[in-house]
Amino acid sequence: MSVALILGAGSRVGKSVASKFAENGYKVALGSRGGGGDVPQGGISVQVDVSKPEDVAAAFAKTEQEFGAPANVVIYNVAAFRPLPSAGEPFSTPYSQFLQDTVSGSLGAYVALQEAVAAFKRVGAGKPKVFIATSNILAVAPPSVNMFGLGSQKRSLAYFVQGGNAAYEKDDFRFYNAMEVSPEGGIPAGAQISGEAHAIAYWNLVQRAGRGGWDIRFVKDGSILEEN
Fold first, then answer.
1. Residue 78 CB partners (closer than 8 Å, separation 6+)
2. Which pLDDT tens digits describe the chain residue by residue (228 residues)?
3. How far apart, in whole angstroms, are the C-alpha atoms of residue 163 and residue 10?
4. Which InterPro entries match (predicted)?
5. For residues 12 and 18, what is the distance between their CA atoms, to the nearest angstrom?
6. Helix (H, G, I), strand (E, B) or coil at 105
7. What values do phi and psi take at 25, rounded to 5?
8. Dist. CA 132–CA 130, nearest whole Å
9. Where are the domains of the chain?
10. Which DSSP category does 103 fall into?
11. How does DSSP classify residue 71?
């Protein structure tokens, strides 16, 4: 049995990715703070606050308990964005708020990566073992002042993913930092992203024969424009 755990049950990316994997035979656990979301048939909803390490660990444990197998695909689809209190001043966000957002947007991923690696070590041979972080161009572009908090989260995520990809190559554990971009490689038109594009791109990453790059940039039809 193949199992996917999606942390972040957004109505766009989370829902589309969950549906895609379920349609292709995966058992899907969809995690969110409220424990809701559009859960595909045969899947489960998991209540999880990614800012709490014990919640993340519990989400992995519940997924394995319910399906009788550890997650072999983990998707981190969480971010925290809020406008700067003072436009143009990147350090105007109160420290307590910046810390709270950073914990959700990137430090929570650190715990998810720890749990994912532990789960992958229990996955049977022949199954893909893949961690995908939902990202955006802020992870690789020069700092954006008015998107400073979100950008710092995405930079940290990229660092974690690249480190995991290098460290566990011999185990064939794969880690991807994936983002939708425009055909020119920038921000999608109107800054609108496609849930379906994410679903196609993520499914193809899991199914691909080789590791490829860790930095994945795909366009609106889900095809890869660039990888590094």
1. 7, 8, 50, 104, 105, 108, 109, 134
2. 899 999 998 778 999 999 999 999 999 999 988 876 678 889 999 999 999 999 999 999 999 999 999 999 999 999 889 999 999 999 999 999 999 999 999 999 999 999 999 999 999 889 999 999 999 999 999 999 999 999 999 999 999 999 999 999 999 999 999 999 999 999 998 778 999 999 999 999 999 998 999 999 999 999 999 999
3. 27
4. NAD(P)-bd_dom_sf
5. 10
6. helix
7. 95, 0
8. 7
9. 3-227
10. I
11. -
CATH entry 3.40.50.720 includes domain 3-227: yes
DSSP 8-state symbol, 146:
G
Please state, in angstroms and rounded to a whole number, the distance separating the CA atoms of residues 86 and 79.
21
Q: What is the DSSP letter of 171?
A: T
Q: Where are the beta strands (DSSP E) in the chain?
A: 3-7, 27-32, 44-47, 73-76, 129-134, 173-180, 215-218, 224-227
User: By the 8 A CB rule, do 21 and 203 touch?
Assistant: yes
Give strand pairing partners of 179: 217
**Quick check: pTM over 0.90?**
yes
